[in-house]
Each structure stands twice: as C-alpha cells, then as structure tokens.
Amino acid sequence: MEEPLRVGIIGCGAIIAQYLTNFRRLDSINLVAVADLDPARAQAVADSYDGVRALTVDELLAAEDVDLVLNLTIPAAHADIALKAIAAGKSVYGEKPLAATTAEAQEVLDAASAAGVVVGCAPDTVLGTGIQTARKAIDDGLIGAPISATATMATPGHERWHPNPDFYYQPGGGPLLDMGPYYVSALVTLLGPVASVMGAASHTRSERTIGSGPREGQKVPVGIDSHVTGVLVHASGALSTLFMSFDAVKTKSPNIEIHGETGSLIVPDPNHFDGDVQHFALGADNWETLPVSAGYVDSGRGFGIADLAATPAGQEPRAGGRLAFHALEVMESVLESARSGQAVAIKSTAERPATVELTELAEHSTAVRA
C-alpha cells in the first residue's frame, strides 16, 4: 500500500487515545477523519488532532481520501463496519476480535478477498520487542525443540473497576474472548498454528457487583462461564495450556512460559509491547534476562497498521486477518469443547508471521518492513 496510508477511524471510545498518541509518531500514517455514533465525541477528537475532520459514519465510508478504516467499534459491530468499509473499496484494520463469531469473520475475509483489499486486526502487541525477542530466541534454537507452553490470565473480575461491565458477563464476553486474543495470537506467533483443542469451563457466581462509578453497588447477571481452561495442540506437536479467569484472585504464574528440550523462557505480558524475556538453560543455575533482539522498539497500538502499510502487495500483514481468524476459531472451539466434552479440530490455519527485525519506527521515521 502507498505511504503515507490515509486512515479514517470509526469509533471514538477510550481506546482511541492510544492510537492517536502513536499515529502522531508515525510518518507512514496520515489520520484524515474520525466518526462516531455520538457526533460530539468525534468532534472532540478532530479538535485535538490537526488536519482531522469529524464525519458521520456514512460520510467517512464514502470519503475518497480514506484508504483504510480503523474499526474501533464494539465487538458486536466489528463485522458490520468492516463489510461496509470493504464494500466502499477500503482496507480495514480492526480492534480484537476480528468479529463476534467465526461465521461473521469469514464473511469479512471473503469480502476483502473478492474486493482486493487488505484486512488487519489487533492485537499488534505481538510485534513489540517482548514477544519478538522470545520468538527470535525460539527460532535461534535457544531452548531446543519447543515442547509446551502455559498462558495464564487471572483477575477477580472487571466489575471491580469498570463502571459498565455488563458485556463482559454476557455471550461474546468472558475471560477467554476478552483477553484470549492477546495470548492465543502470541502462542501462534511463538509456536505456530493450532490443530485441535480441548476445553473445560465453569463459573462461581450468578451475578457480579459493580465496584465503582455511578452504578456502584448494582448487580450484573452472569450469563457465561467466567473461568476457562484449554489445551491447544499445535500443528508442530507442542502443547499449550490456557488458564483464563475472572474468578481467580491472584497468580504468581508468568503470563506465558515456554518449555523446550534444552531450556525454558518466561515471556512478558502479551497485552504489552515490551518487557523482559528470561531464559533458563539446561544445566544453568539461574534465569538470565535476554537482550532485546527483535521487534518494533517503543511500539504501541497502531504499529500493526504501520506494518500493514509497509507490507508488499499480495503478502499477508503480520497482524493480519488470517491470524485473527485463526485465533478466534481457536477460542470459539475451546468454548465448544467445554460444552461438549469433546476435542475439537481447528479447520483454519495461519502461518507464523515473519519475525520483526529490531526496528525503530517512532520519532517520525519511515516504516520499512524488514
């Protein structure tokens, strides 16, 4: 795609602030327009960012100076907005998940293929120095052949801090669909695609109490399982264990731990872009912190779009639609397995995205794909 990539954003909620901060740092991104169902929110963003117009959603979709739509709407609207953007001839980059269901996500990918446009999707945290340094260590043979991984996310519930946590506890929510995209995308980046899964799930409470904001003390019904455990069987033969909970109080387990024949790695939080990677070699006495060796330095949300802009025509972006679809199918299948008690084969696949060479895109440098 030509640079700078002209971007229009639909959805001006809280997450937009992180994208705006990073777009100001990237020469490869030219933000031209924003839209929201609440015109005042869109206007506030436009007022804060030079050269940006506040438009209606339909106006933004029709704008000739928008090459790519950044879809920051709620998950239930992801597919609808993506399909409308694709129909208007625009590429799409969405917040996670790609869509509310794999059926909707498949429609998006099929429409984009037919239209000849590109689909990208968060999380782009996998492009930062944390996950990428771990990926390079694995590729360089530092732990030998990978055997297994554990991925752990434990919190007593978002209602403790979120003023409107209802959607976390209804179908489409829950710990796996909320935080799983970060962990599953990281595991696929590190260990390759998943061939089958097994899952189990439970919930401890039928309602939650909002802990802050104007609705403090109100009860929220729980319509989903709030604790999910899954085993992912990677095509390589490696086994990953997921522990995703809105019920557990606290954990000392690493966010991600990778074990190989000759060593182990502690991988930083996949919800962040950086962090220390620790290595314990067979026969060693202590863990060592590996030097940063790969990934976009000082990156943040939106760097996946810069990477997409630098991706040669015909190639899948690293934070691309196929990886996002595969991660969504893995998560849906873990929940299906939890309901049925049977292992579920994964129909899709996704190539491990190419490693990101150690690269600085910040401070108004030009995005160049390694």
Q: What is the N-to-C succession of helices and strands?
A: EHEHEHEHEHEHEHEEEEEEEEEEHHEE
The count of strands amounts to: 19
Regions with pLDDT < 50 over 5+ consecutive residues?
364-370
Characterize the main sheet.
Answer: 9 strands, mixed
The helix content, as a percent range, equals 25-40%
Report on the architecture of this protein:
With 370 residues, the protein is α/β, with parallel strands linked by helices. It is 28% helix and 24% strand. Helix 6 (129-139) runs parallel beside helix 7 (175-191). The chain starts with a strand and ends in a 10-residue tail after the last strand.
Could you provide a short overview of the structure?
The chain has 370 residues and is an alpha/beta fold.
Please supply descriptive tags for the structure shown above:
370 residues; 9 helices; 19 strands
Helices and strands in order, then pairings?
Elements: E1 5-10, H1 16-23, E2 29-35, H2 39-48, E3 53-55, H3 57-62, E4 68-71, H4 78-87, E5 91-94, H5 102-115, E6 119-121, H6 129-139, E7 146-154, H7 175-191, E8 194-202, E9 207-209, E10 219-221, E11 227-234, E12 239-245, E13 256-260, E14 263-267, E15 278-281, E16 288-289, E17 296-297, H8 303-309, H9 321-340, E18 344-345, E19 359-360
Helix pairs in contact: 4-5, 5-9, 6-7, 7-9
